[in-house]
Amino acid sequence: MAIASVHFATSSNGSDKDTYSPDQNPQINADTDTIYDGITLRKTLGGKSFAVANHQTKRRRRKFVYENISSANKTKLENLFNQVKGRLTSFYYSEDDFNNSGADSSKNFEVRFVNDVLPVSETAYNVFSVEIEIEEQI
């Protein structure tokens, strides 16, 4: 399933999405992983493996690469990163421009950054590349 649009906001209804969402979408090959947490695999001395599920929570992880974006779009992503202070505070991500209400819909998610570092590189004069990785908040 292709992601048609990517928008970020600090409010669940997306009212401030224009403050934090770049005007251009990320590269089309965005990683969209699904992760099951809480499952531990243990191996006995005899070599047999046992899986123990402390909890079986499924969550989404997205990795976006914004290439050739302007300084204004780079600033929007940096402002979001600074507002939520890396992984400290959750924020909202939408694949449908926050058209469905709240983070409980199938296209709107409460997320956190995966890293406390925002990799930004200048590829040409006033042209930037920014890579972000977000993970659904459980």
Task: Tell me what you see in this structure.
- The protein has 138 residues and is mainly beta.
- Strands 1, 2, 3, 4, 5, 6 and 7 form a seven-stranded antiparallel beta sheet that branches.
- The mean pLDDT is 84.
- Strand 2 and strand 3 form a beta hairpin.
- It contains two helices and seven strands; from the N terminus they run E-H-E-E-H-E-E-E-E.
- It has helices at residues 17-20, 71-84, and strands at residues 7-9, 31-43, 49-69, 91-94, 108-113, 120-124, 127-136.
- The protein is globular.
DSSP strand content: 35-45%
Please bin the fraction of helical residues: 10-25%
| Gap between N and C termini | 22 Å
Shape call: globular
How do the helices and strands follow one another from N- to C-terminus?
A: EHEEHEEEE
User: Which residues sit in consecutive blocks of at least 5 with pLDDT less than 50?
Assistant: none
Mean pLDDT: 84
Main β-sheet, in a few words? 7 strands, antiparallel
Q: If you compute it from the alpha carbons, what radius of gyration comes out, rounded to the nearest whole angstrom?
A: 17 Å
Give the class from helix and strand content and strand pairing. Answer: mainly beta
Count of helical stretches: 2
Count every beta strand, where a strand is a DSSP E run of 2 or more residues.
7
